[in-house]
Each structure stands twice: as C-alpha cells, then as structure tokens.
Design goal:
Elements lengths: L13 E14 L2 E2 L6 E8 L2 E12 L2 E13 L3 E5 L8 E6 L4 E5 L6 H14 L11
Antiparallel strand pairs: 1-2, 1-3, 1-8, 3-4, 4-5, 6-7, 7-8
Length: about 140
C-alpha cells in the first residue's frame, strides 16, 4: 500500500489497519441522504483514522491497484463506541463534534471491539491535531 497522505505526512506506527465498510448516518446533525455502506482501507495511526480507496485495474503486467487517501479524521475530536445494531454485527460508531455520525463495519475479521479498543488507546496517546480534513 502506498502512502498517498500528501500533506498529512508519513504514517508512523500503525495501531490497527484493515478493510472496513463506512456508512454516514448523520451529517451536521441531520440524517444523511446517502446511507449506503462503502468499503475503505482504514489505518489508525498518529491519533487519526485515515480512509483510503483501493482501485483495481488491468495493466500491462496483469492486475494492479492504486490507493488514494480520501479522508482522515482526528480521533481526539470524536467519540467512538461499539454499536448495538440489530441489523448488523461488528459495528462501531464514530461521532464528531459538529454532529456527524458514521458507522463502521468490520466484515473480514469481525473484530469491532478490537477496533474500538485500539482507537481509544490511540486517542489517549496523541494530542489534538488541527490539520486534518473531515470524513465528507
């Protein structure tokens, strides 16, 4: 995976990483108009969660892939909780200070509690950053 973080700099020690599905539930305190799950490769590091899209393509050497940083959010400005979603297992929620609420679903390892634990530990280890973009 290439680091496309641009101005976010080099990603240092990774607390947890993997593919998660993300769904926007509320945007600025109002229900989101688009409520579908979308897959991202997620990395929790340096007090933030970074979401990358992975695009697969054919090349002269066979199949290839490119990654692009789409979103990065400072975890210190968010609350992270395990969700009790009757429709979906292994879901956790990230809510920010401006009323955005996002659900994340771990479909591969089914370890949402592990993600929440690692994110909470990452929040404690890193100070608040102000140079990050929001999810949307």
């Amino acid at each position: 995976m290439s680091n496309s973080a641009g101005s976010l700099g080099k990603i240092s020690e990774v607390a947890i990483e993997g593919v998660l599905l993300k769904k926007t539930c509320q945007k600025y305190g109002k229900p989101s108009k688009i409520r579908r799950w979308k897959a991202y490769y997620c990395i929790v590091s340096d007090g933030r969660i970074s979401l990358f899209t992975v695009k697969r393509h054919r090349s002269a050497n066979g199949m290839g892939q490119t990654t692009e940083l789409k979103k990065a959010v400072n975890l210190n400005s968010c609350t992270v909780t395990l969700s009790h979603d009757l429709k979906h297992d292994n879901v956790f929620t990230i809510a920010d200070l401006v009323g955005n609420i996002y659900k994340f679903k771990d479909v591969h390892t089914e370890d949402a509690p592990g993600w929440v634990e690692k994110i909470q530990a990452e929040k404690k280890q890193h100070p608040l950053r102000t140079d990050l973009i929001g999810f949307d």
